[in-house]
Design goal:
Helices cover 73% and strands 0% of the residues. The chain is mainly alpha-helical and 194 residues long.
């Protein structure tokens, strides 16, 4: 799952959202250096990633991309799944996606001191290009994929994956819907445990 799903699955706790958002840049047990609620977000992020990577539905989706994109098929699939979350946002939230995104961007800018350097460096691009809302359209996804190509020094042409997205759109969307219901339940349980 990518940024939108991680934030959404954090529930209503702002510090858990912050921890979940920046967790990829926190290695090993370095999460112990953070306040309790941010730590919960980091651990929730790791639980989401583990659940996702091992889930047969997600693996089925990712398999369609593996031959062409190899290691990056998981990165692409995470972004595709965020697309379906954004596209179907009304199914999952009563708040408009644009307002949800603005509220989250404000949360991050109001808590810069809590963010990792990597998260701080990414923030202007995320806000400037409104990534969370951009996920909802294929054009927005294409822009994000071009940025990913740039960040990964064009190792694979991730922007070309829009072809596969269109080709298997119905299958991907159905798989996302089934998978995401299970992931939401998993996250609710995990948050109760943390």
């Amino acid at each position: 799952m990518n940024f939108l799903a991680h934030i959404y699955l954090s529930g209503d706790n702002d510090l858990i959202k912050i921890g979940n958002f920046m967790a990829d840049s926190i290695r090993g047990n370095k999460y112990d250096d953070y306040p309790t609620e941010i730590r919960k977000g980091i651990l929730l992020h790791r639980a989401i990633d583990s659940f996702t990577d091992m889930h047969p539905i997600y693996r089925q989706s990712k398999h369609r991309l593996h031959e062409k994109y190899g290691h990056y098929s998981g990165v692409i699939m995470d972004i595709f799944y965020d697309h379906f979350l954004a596209k179907n946002w009304k199914t999952y939230s009563n708040e408009k996606l644009g307002i949800y995104a603005e509220t989250f961007y404000t949360l991050l800018t109001d808590n810069l001191e809590a963010l990792t350097d990597k998260a701080k460096g990414m923030l202007p691009y995320m806000i400037g290009r409104n990534w969370l809302v951009s996920y909802a359209s294929i054009e927005g996804l294409e822009m994000i994929m071009f940025q990913m190509d740039h960040r990964t020094k064009n190792r694979v042409a991730m922007h070309e994956s829009i072809v596969e997205l269109k080709q298997f759109y119905i299958e991907f969307e159905k798989e996302f819907g089934l998978f995401f219901e299970e992931l939401k339940q998993h996250c609710q349980q995990k948050l109760e445990e943390l």
